[in-house]
């Protein structure tokens, strides 16, 4: 590979769990700094980067609903957790010299700009990394769905789904030794087989708008750059 990016604008979806490292809860500053360094590396190649970050390292609405918490309240708490993570990543990126903006679907003007689609696009055009917080701003939608929606709204060319495994497998490779890796698969097949890539709403949104999804391992240093420069790693979900 030449090392030149094959995408001009990408949306990177990070799980909240990716930020906690091996701590089991919360935010590991060293892990966040490493991720920020890898985002900077891609940004320095000229790629426009938007981020959507989950909140599962702080609060998982799904778990709380199982404990009889009202779903809407739990989902709103989860959205606020994503804002905490977004501010942590923003701080790490700014410390590495990358100009960023956090845009939140829930207005909180003291710490983030309100999400306005045209403003987000303008920030990207001005070479700022845009961190899109608080999901869609609505309960009943996951951050996966928010990532798919925002990727289409800001006209990203691809949705990069960062995970802890090397792509999409027939089963969880961490628990099933018979699981095999899938290099490329169609959206409908993901839905038909019930593969746990993203939730069905996110997959359907991407399918309806022909937005490719690349699933790759974030724990291996340099993989974000490898994906944007076209190396054959991870798995691709597409048409």
Descriptive notes:
With 239 residues, the chain is an alpha/beta fold. The protein has one domain (9-238): Carbamate kinase (3-Layer(aba) Sandwich), CATH 3.40.1160. It contains eight helices and eleven strands. It has helices at residues 29-44, 61-66, 71-95, 117-125, 143-153, 187-193, 200-208, 223-228, and strands at residues 9-14, 48-53, 100-104, 113-114, 129-133, 158-163, 168-169, 181-182, 184-186, 213-217, 235-238. The strands form two sheets. The chain has a nine-stranded mixed beta sheet with strand order 4-3-5-2-1-6-10-11-9, sandwiched between helices. A two-stranded antiparallel ribbon has the order 7-8. Helix 1 (29-44) packs across helix 3 (71-95), helix 5 runs parallel beside helix 7 (200-208) and helix 6 (187-193) packs antiparallel against helix 7. The longest helix is centred in the middle third of the chain and has 25 residues, at 71-95.
DSSP E strands, number: 11
Q: What is the number of helices?
A: 8
Q: Please tell me how large the radius of gyration is.
A: 17 Å
- By CATH, the architecture is named 3-Layer(aba) Sandwich
Largest sheet: 9 strands, mixed
Q: According to CATH, what is the topology?
A: Carbamate kinase
């Amino acid at each position: 590979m030449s090392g030149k990016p094959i995408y001009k604008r990408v949306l990177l979806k990070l799980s909240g769990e990716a930020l906690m490292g091996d701590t089991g809860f919360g935010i590991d500053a060293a892990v966040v700094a490493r991720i920020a360094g890898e985002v900077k590396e891609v940004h320095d190649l000229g790629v426009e980067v938007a981020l959507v970050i989950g909140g599962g390292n702080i609060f998982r609405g799904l778990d709380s609903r199982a404990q009889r918490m009202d779903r809407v309240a739990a989902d709103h708490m989860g959205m606020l957790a994503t804002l905490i993570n977004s501010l942590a990543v923003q701080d790490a990126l700014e410390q590495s010299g990358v100009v960023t903006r956090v845009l939140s679907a829930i207005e909180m003007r003291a710490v983030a700009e309100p999400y306005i689609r045209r403003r987000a696009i303008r920030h990207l055009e001005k070479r700022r990394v845009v961190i899109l917080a608080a999901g869609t701003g609505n309960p009943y939608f996951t951050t996966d769905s928010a990532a798919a929606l925002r990727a289409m709204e800001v006209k990203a060319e691809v949705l990069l789904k960062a995970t802890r495994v090397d792509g999409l497998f027939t089963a969880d490779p961490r628990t099933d030794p018979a699981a095999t890796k899938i290099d490329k698969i169609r959206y409908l097949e993901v839905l038909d087989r019930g593969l746990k890539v993203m939730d069905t709403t996110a997959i359907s949104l991407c399918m309806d708008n022909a937005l490719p999804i690349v699933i790759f391992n974030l724990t291996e240093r340099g993989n974000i750059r490898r994906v944007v420069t076209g190396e054959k790693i991870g798995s691709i979900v597409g048409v």
